[in-house]
Hints:
The protein is 21% helix and 24% strand. By secondary structure, it is an alpha+beta fold.
Amino acid sequence: MSNCLQCAKPTKLKIHKFCSRKCFFTHYTKKVTRACDQCGQEFQVSRSRATTTKYRGGRYCSKKCMGQHWHVLGTKRNPKGRYLHNGYVYVHAPKHPHRIKNGFIAEHRLVAEQLVGRHLMKTEAVHHINGIKHDNSPANLSIVNSGVHYGHVECPKCQFHFKIR
């Protein structure tokens, strides 16, 4: 048997985390005080929202702060027009031909374009050799055909064969 997470009484079955519905709802509807990642203001958020990934896990006091933290240029957290999304770094390049709607492009694509001296084709992908998405050093990047991203790959320009994981 295990103990209830709310009141510490023994539960009926080992797999149960709470002894009753009352303890379950009390546990997950309690408010937790957090500081906003953008503005630093303290705010109350329910424990269930604080543990979920929706709205970044209750990290922001409002949607406005969440938007400023992730997308707006010129803030204290974003002085160079960069933001992180799904582990990749995006930079502001409003005149780039392959930018997304908000005027940003993945930094690893820009670095790879500088290495080869041309814009990448839509059929080319950039692979992070060590698997760290935000490590955009030239030594860590390789250009691959997007159809063949893992295994043995041939460079579309120089026909060099290499193995990626």
